[in-house]
Amino acid sequence: MISFEPISLLQRNWLQEIGVDRSLLMRLPLQDSVASAGVQQPLAVQPVHSGSTSPAPSKETAMQAREKALALIRPRRAQQAAAEPMPSAPVLRKSTLDLRVLAADLSGLQEQITVCDGCELHEGRALTVFGRGAEQQPDWLVVGEAPGSSDDRSGHAFDGQAGELLQSMLNSVLPEASFYFTHLVKCRPLGNRPPKQEELDACRRFLDKQIDILQPKRILAVGQLAARVFAQHEQALETMRGQVLRYEGPDQRTYPLVLSYHPAALLLRPQFKVHAWRDLLMMRELQQKIH
Ligand code: SF4
Fold this sequence. Notes:
By secondary structure, the chain is of the alpha/beta class. It is 44% helix and 9% strand.
């Protein structure tokens, strides 16, 4: 049980002004001179200078009252602080995952990516977007630039309208083929800007490891940036597409490579669909040649 010294009316007003709980104020005894005068003591905030019928307290008196009031509640606050347990630091799951050595299987690699903060893209992502599809030697590894807003919300690569368009185009020409879909980077750049070079570099080891684990039979890179990364050439997509290229993977294997338009670009510019259709026919021809 904590006992308090009697306080003056002025002290009580100070305590109320600085936010002391009303129920506590009601429990604080008033000095005899105040209580015996029968003064009604409203708990509404009172101005320090309270009117013409009673002399206004000097500034020094008010300050003294404030200091005394604070002195009254300080021990109580100290007791409260001592009684409250210190919040424990959040346990970061990241500390249990070592990203220096990448997992040798897709599920382990995906788990590592969910806690990756290897570039600034981690700050704006809702979900990491690892990849989806056939996980054992897919006929085609389809690689885009970066997750879009639908991907970011669902965590699935090539989600949304653009993904549906790509899927229906692939299904119409290559109904028997298996696909795995992923991106150069696994976190969405805010505002759908292209990933910066340092972000591509930071995320590259995850893509390389995916290719190493998946061992796809062929690669389709969609969009300007993915085309440049896989073709290792700075030319425009329009110049590079329309032919089967070769991509030398991180595992020293060589993959047949086709470049084409990103489905989001086809939604914006339907006139490119005729070229994309030719790319698909080339993919079918390639698949028939190399099983
Ligand atoms: Fe890590 Fe890649 Fe995401 Fe950057 S984009 S935070 S490197 S997973």
